[in-house]
Amino acid sequence: MTVPIVQVDAFTSAAFAGNPAAVCLLPAPRDAGWMQSVASEMARAATAFLHRRGDDGFELRWFTPAVELELCGHATLASAHVLWESGILAAAEPARFHTRSGLLTAMRQEEWIELDFPADPDEPATAPPDLLAALDATPLYVGKSRRYYVVELDGEAEVRRLRPDFERLRTVAALGIIATARAAAAGDDFVSRFFAPALGLDEDAVTGSAHCCLGPFWSRRLGKPELLARQLSARGGMLRVRSDGDRVRLGGKAVTILRGQLLA
Q: Which of 53, 129, 157, 242 fits a disulfide with 249 by CB distance 3.0 to 4.6 angstroms?
């Protein structure tokens, strides 16, 4: 039996930019070992696996090449994009995903897709010595959310120049580390980079879940709920971010790169 699989570049309007995700459309649930093997074979930052859940949307799980994720923004965006593009969902129909992080939804807004995700606000924290040594940076602020450390730096140039020591960063007790600063370019509000060697990803291209922390963080600092964010990885990506109480709305675009069939 073959299984459809689609590769999508998420949080971008251009091919070969943003964050690539593989989306696997399952006719029925598969075991975690098989899904982990597929994700390792695909060697993308995340592979999404989804199947129908009766009349109440889809079950959705995400795997990196190394581990299963609790939350993943770009592969959720890619999954919603595939459901609408393939005609499985009508254009005006919301996508409903049942996940390890609860119910997540997505809506189409012309060329944009808006995700409804749980907020992950930070609190001030003392940085572990290995964190700052690995980044070789002097922060303006360090905080910690439930998942991630957030390190605010003095300007976009400081974020761009980071060349982390990933072996040392791997010893930091967090799923990931966000480096962020106010944006230098007109129209952008803030920039970031995201490092997650503990998840098998030294640097992620565009990270939706990190913006569940960055949305509340920058909304407080800039005094506005709606923000335009740019992630400064080599591939780069753009997000609309709207802080809404205990939720964060993440907007992005997506481009299909290839379609195929899994034969194993």
A: 242
